[in-house]
Amino acid sequence: MNRTDRLYALAEELRRVGHAGTTSTRLARLFEVSPRTVKRDVSALQQAGLPVTAQAGLGGGYVLDASVGLPPVNFTPAQAVALALAVRALPPGSPFGTDAEAARGKVLDALPPADRLRADELSGRVWSRPEQVGEVATPQVLRAVEESLGRHRVLAIEYRSGDGTLSRRRIEPVLLARTGGHWYVAAWCQWREAVRWFRLARILRADLTPERYEPRPLADVGEPPPDAYPVSSRPSD
């Protein structure tokens, strides 16, 4: 997680825990950084105008003023269950799967107590069998691909092709796609000087580089299947 995303997530976590506050040790464990880094991040939030205060004494920690936060999220219990079902339906190893699970938790946390009870009762009556999958990408690879696509940073990968050949590439991701039961990243390969499709499960290692790239048009990937559409749209859009 880059620092900008971490600062936003830190502010949201402080909002979520409310007046009880939370300690730098817990925040460090949650975001996988040192307590010193948490203190620097809190200082940055304070300098940006966010009213974060420190409670002294045993069990003390950081507290965000209760008046600060996002507007209330007005989900119904059924909508919360629908979101939970969609998240749980994601095959293991899906891009943004970790973020989807975190979003599911935020939606449930935002429900009033009575609605949360109804959502819990309703979700207990909806069963789903997870999709069976073979090889999946590692969390490190998934996170690197996600950040590369979102921040337009060239990705250095080690890739094993279908015949077992190993190669090292520098790629510029264009899109992520699931087809034939596998997730792929379609990317401009700087070595081949052409768009290539890389199965995520075959990427052995992926490292974000400092080099930025200009995202290529989706049309460079080719014509999508007639029933394919971006996840930001409905099939009828």
TrEMBL record:
**What is any Pfam family matched here?**
WYL
Q: Which PROSITE patterns match?
A: WYL
What keyword terms does UniProt attach to this protein? Answer: DNA-binding
- Gene3D superfamilies registered for this protein in UniProt: Winged helix-like DNA-binding domain superfamily/Winged helix DNA-binding domain (1.10.10.10)
Instruction: Check the record and name the InterPro entries matching this protein.
Output: CBASS_pafABC_assoc_protein, HTH_11, WH-like_DNA-bd_sf, WH_DNA-bd_sf, WYL_dom
One Gene Ontology MF term = DNA binding
User: Which residue ranges are recorded for the region named Disordered?
Assistant: 214-237
Q: Which residues form a coiled coil?
A: none
Specify the WYL domain's residue ranges.
140-206
Q: Specify the Helix-turn-helix type domain's residue ranges.
A: 8-62
Specify the protein name. DNA-binding transcriptional regulator YafY
Which lineage? Bacteria, Bacillati, Actinomycetota, Actinomycetes, Micrococcales
